[in-house]
Write a structure and sequence with these properties.
alpha+beta, homodimer, Aminopeptidase, nine-stranded mixed β-sheet, 21% strand
Chain lengths: 444, 444
């Protein structure tokens, strides 16, 4: 699938969503009166306006979950929802829902994303799926499309886990993973979660009510930028997400003996940093030792005493493994642990690890995948199946309903960075596919 | 050389300096009326009393250079010098000299060490050489020994470089390495060097006068604990120091690309930390690649962004190499640089290093070494030649006079640590050798 050269998102969001030939051709291929075509200029304006909330002077955006910039952006988004005729509701976790009635009393088909960013983030992570969800609603209205299932666009609260380190906060509350016990947690801004919910106009005492009742949803769909550069490398605009990888974190500590870097002979050292250097490379080796898309990372080392002239005696480091297959994570970790034991013995350094956090893999619903592929096919688009290496709100939703996810190509896979960039044409076709999907699934 | 079991220094300094059989036998072997035997109980009392200044509640001592504890300890030491009949003088850098006249107008034979410690240091690094110098003076007096050369015991200011990171501060001023330009430097306690010198009763305007005039010294001798555990492992109480190693520091920076640890495939990473892990191990490999006592250390890594779920994009790390032979340091570094270039290429990470600091190696005077060996032989002691891997005040003195150094065995080579421990018997024989050395060199 080759697309014509189109203007790229630049800073400030130079979003020129051109009606690309491929979109036009897609329209010609089908006679159904769906929400297509999306209104390209309207979507551009929404994303452009959203990018003003928390815009960094030097590019990108800092719109942290639970911040003044986020609050202001939420007001803007709720305004868009109301203007699109949606019934807006905010749950006690701050999640925003825009409801569109269906023709029958059926479970809701939910779709959306988040609008909070990381510190010095980009303009598309979360925003594309959020504004895309609203644009789909507007396009359905424009084309007077009705659906059997009620539709809801959702903006989840604090997906990036700012202040509190609790990622996918809103969707975790909605799925019942987080209960009221988290509310006393104090963030790095000095406020508790309860404080922030009150600022967001919510009553923390009602937090448990954010949980979505079993059976209330027909499914959850999320459109998101692809953050790995896989689609970009393969020159494919749309990815069908097979599932969201499981994530395991271990916190490891290596204990050697801090000693004088000048007087301690090489053969008498218990250098914790040398041992951890070997350990980090062993993690990479073992991850690479079998085929597949699994990844493993050592993201930091905390070194003590950390002086130029002292042999490090103590190093803390994390190991993170991710894959769609929990058994594969387990298998790799078993090999890693064995290597750590060998390294510790050879280096006379004690290495111990403890499991810190686990998110199980979440598969997307095969039927949803098939429908996404069909929708893309109708639009004349090639797709590629791939896992999501990042966690998303869809991961939380997977515990209470069927999920589907589609990725839109992102330049170089760069995200969480002001340089985050997507092609306007790609966003157009992705939202087109999202609309077709909803139509196939929910239309009466 | 085997010594009988003697009481060890424990916390609080459980110093039981027993007249060991080897000391007795040493006395029997010689008929010269030197300062031997040192007064073991008097030396024990001096070290015990000194250990009270800055004593940590949980062991060891924190007697930082330029601190109230150090000031109080200096008063105590000056009192001991005066009680030993020495003429006390403090130079504008705060160095304390205790002068004992010679029978002829000859250059001074200087010997001593320092009494400041690192944070949570031990009771012997510096203290043994300082109290030992005073004990030698007292023993010479007891035995009515005169010397042709005047003798001076010296206590150098802030050898450990506390607050200011300027190690061997006092001796650097005395050797002319540090001029008045350093006085404006502000330490981590918020005060400048000039402020501290004023507190120590000195006039910073006269700082340059701390420089010792060319030809004023006949030589400098220092007794110090051996901080590498080499003597301990070899079961030899006394080491003859061949010289003080040269030290080179490079500051290196590795630049990869920070990216999402979940979404970035293993083969698309530019992981700065993985590259630096390999670099640190390459340093060790190249240091080990040739025989000798050279050492190389990577003491820390500063990792950015330093998050469990982000591939590190930027790592700063130091490389320190030490050896008696500057050419060997150069040769090893050349190999290390070549390895870094290879690793950088393979990892798609840029690694650059800049030379940060250089101290050239300082050889001890061969004649002094021979005299130390002879003194030890007279005392019936085996010795071992070895380099000093640590910098010492003697290193600074080497630029203005001949130096000699002897090491006393230190348990496990542990120093800069409350667990620092020496055997009383070893200290006794070391001070005995120091006295014999002075006698051989300076006696009329």
């Amino acid at each position: 699938m080759s697309l014509p050269a189109v203007a790229k998102f630049l800073f400030p969001v130079a979003f020129l969503l051109l009606a690309s030939p491929s979109m036009t051709s897609a329209q010609e291929k089908t006679s159904s009166a769906t929400g297509r075509p999306v209104n390209a200029e309207r979507l551009r304006q929404s994303l452009e306006k959203l990018s003003e909330f928390g815009r960094n002077p030097d590019g990108g955006v800092t719109r942290l979950g639970f911040s003044e910039a986020d609050m202001a952006a939420r007001e803007y988004v709720m305004g868009l929802m109301r203007a699109a005729g949606l019934i807006v509701r905010v749950d006690p976790a701050g999640n925003i829902f825009g409801h569109r009635e269906g023709t029958e009393k059926l479970p809701v088909l939910l779709f959306g994303s988040h609008i909070d960013s990381v510190l010095h983030g980009g303009n598309f992570d979360g925003d594309v799926g959020s504004m895309g969800a609203i644009e789909v609603m507007r396009a359905l209205n424009d084309n007077h499309v009705t659906t059997r299932h009620p539709l809801e666009a959702v903006i989840w609260t604090n997906e990036e886990g700012n202040h509190f380190g609790l990622g996918t906060f809103g969707s975790s509350a909605a799925s019942g993973k987080f209960g009221p016990e988290v509310l006393a947690r104090r963030g790095d801004d000095g406020l508790t979660l309860a404080d922030w919910l009150r600022r967001y106009g919510q009553d923390p005492a009602r937090f448990a009510e954010a949980r979505i009742a079993p059976g209330a949803l027909a499914g959850y769909l999320e459109l998101h930028i692809e953050q790995g550069g896989v689609l970009d490398e393969a020159h494919i605009p749309i990815g069908v997400v097979q599932g969201i990888v499981g994530i395991r974190h271990w916190r490891c500590v290596a204990t050697g003996f801090a000693n004088h870097a000048g007087t301690t002979p090489m053969n008498r050292r218990q250098d914790a940093l040398a041992a951890v250097a070997r350990a980090a490379l062993a993690v990479r080796d073992e991850v690479r030792a079998e085929p597949g898309r699994q990844v493993g990372t050592v993201g930091y080392m905390k070194i003590e005493p950390g002086s130029v002239n002292v042999i490090p005696g103590h190093v803390e480091f994390p190991v993170e493994l991710r894959d769609l297959d929990a058994a594969k994570i387990e298998r790799i970790w078993n090999r890693v642990e064995k290597r750590f034991a060998e390294i510790g013995k050879e280096e006379n350094v004690d290495i111990h690890c403890a499991l810190d956090d686990t998110d199980d893999p979440a598969s997307s619903e095969p039927e949803f995948r098939a429908v996404i592929r069909k929708a893309a096919e109708e639009a004349g688009l090639a797709t590629m199946d791939l896992p999501s290496g990042a966690g998303h709100d869809a991961m939380m939703m997977a515990s209470i309903t069927d999920i589907g996810m589609l990725f839109v190509r992102c330049k170089g896979g760069i995200s969480h960075n002001p340089a985050e960039s997507v092609e306007a044409g790609d966003v157009g076709v992705a939202i087109d596919v999202l609309g077709r999907f909803l139509e196939l699934l929910a239309k009466g």
